[in-house]
Amino acid sequence: IYAAGYVKLLVTFVKYIPQVWKNYRRQSTVGWSIDQILMDLVGGILSVAQLVIDSSLQNDWSGITGNPVKLGLGNISMFFDVVFMLQHYVLYRGAQKVEEDGLDSERRSLLAREEDEDENATGRPIFGR
After folding, report:
1. Which of 15, 16, 28, 110 could join 80 via S-S bond, C-beta 3.0 to 4.6 A?
2. CA-only gyration radius of the chain, Å
3. Is-contact 73 12, C-beta < 8 A?
């Protein structure tokens, strides 16, 4: 059963990395909800707080180190939650919306305008569109 706990710890660590990387590549968190991260942060804080409170009430601080998976899950969650909050509120605060193809709305509208001008000049769509 302990092995399953450590697998969960590994999965928890790995599951956050793709979103951190995607936010970094796009230099934006537009279109992505921070609400779930704020709730996850509260959950991580409460989880670690429960370990500390239980240990203090029992005067046995081994309760914290005796459950390394729970301590690890709470700390990993809180670490990535802080990373996401830094990305959302500090690093990429004023970022424009960036689509999956890497174009922001201003570039997309300029490209669309150029395509419209090309179609109007020839009277037919370019590239069979």
Report:
1. 16
2. 23
3. yes
| 20: amino acid identity, one letter | V
Cα 7 from chain centroid (whole Å): 21
- From the number of C-beta atoms within 10 Å of its C-beta (0-12, 13-18, 19+), residue 36 rates as exposed
Task: Report the pLDDT averaged over residues 92-110.
Answer: 63
Q: What helix, strand, coil percent values describe the chain, rounded to 5?
A: 75, 0, 20
- Find out whether 107 and 116 touch, Cβ atoms under 8 Å: no
d(CA 14, CA 2): 19
Looking at every residue in the chain, the average pLDDT score rounds to: 83
Which of the two residues, 83 and 110, has the higher pLDDT score? Answer: 83
- Tokens representing residue 61 in the block: 């601080």
Q: Measure the N-to-C terminal CA separation of the chain; round to a whole number of Å.
A: 58
85, 36 in Cβ contact below 8 A? no
